[in-house]
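Closing statement on the geranylgeranyl diphosphate sub-project.
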Amino acid sequence: MVATNNLKMTQGQDSFEISAYLQARQHLCEAALEGAIPVIYPEKIYEAMRYSLLAGGKRLRPILCLATCEMAGGTIEIAMPTACALEMIHTMSLIHDDLPAMDNDDYRRGQLTNHKVYGENIAILAGDGLLAYAFEFVAVNTRNVPAEQLLQVVARLAKAVGAAGLVGGQVLDLDSEGKPDISLETLNFIHSHKTAALLEASVVCGGILAGVQECDRQRLSRYAQNIGLAFQIVDDILDITATREELGKTAGKDQKAQKATYPSIWGLEESQRQAQQLFEAAVAELAPFGERATPLVAIADFIISRTH
Ligand code: GRG
């Protein structure tokens, strides 16, 4: 799936199979998500929620949560409800992002967007339903985690969603439409909120569930902020270089919308170099975790090497 040259360089080992690891974790997440939302009356809304939630996707946020929890001494079992909630939140943000009032897109995850199938009114409600259910799901299903830690997880998730996270990033993104000359500072603000905040919550919540100390929590937070920005730089690169089939969504949208992106500011080559630098800074934060950090290093490598 991806080249793992960075992993070999950084860890001095070549035995970790990131493709197999991601595939196995994706299967675990798919199974948990499949069982998370049964269809009851009124069926239409549950079907709309499931349509987007079960449409595939890389499942990067839940995988990051599980991997961090395990690295810090926790288990997949204690982290799975939070992992599912992260994917529900991410999916709701995609549904709302694709709406005509936002990015107005027809394709997502290789299929028609939610509003194209169910209509705008139900798509808005499907997003709302997923968001509320994410919090219920964590609160009701998490086992063997002290209440204080669980409360911190809920607070972290909520912060990543709101005006200090996804919502704030999206507001500035909307403001920046048709302004290809916005500053690098503004672009960084947009993506550290719109993209990196939820990735950061994924990693930090995994650590909190496992009971990490504050200094490790801060390391995890810096790791995630770095991979979050690297993720967005690569997303911007792929918007130029990949096809709709590869991406599962419309390609070439940024240029068409006259959006400022990392490649529009730096060019493609420099953007790739900056992503590599962020990868290195991210990996440096994991040094105290030694070999147990191998999956998180490999995921960071996947993020900068991915083709979709
Ligand atoms: C959260 C209340 C609330 C509202 C949403 C619309 C909005 C506010 C925010 C937009 C957030 C957004 C869509 C950010 C883009 C993040 C991003 C790079 C998505 C693509 O993630 P991938 O590549 O997708 O991980 P898959 O499909 O693989 O999961």
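The first helix runs from residue 5 to 11. With this model delivered, the sub-project is considered complete and its resources will be redirected to Aim 3.
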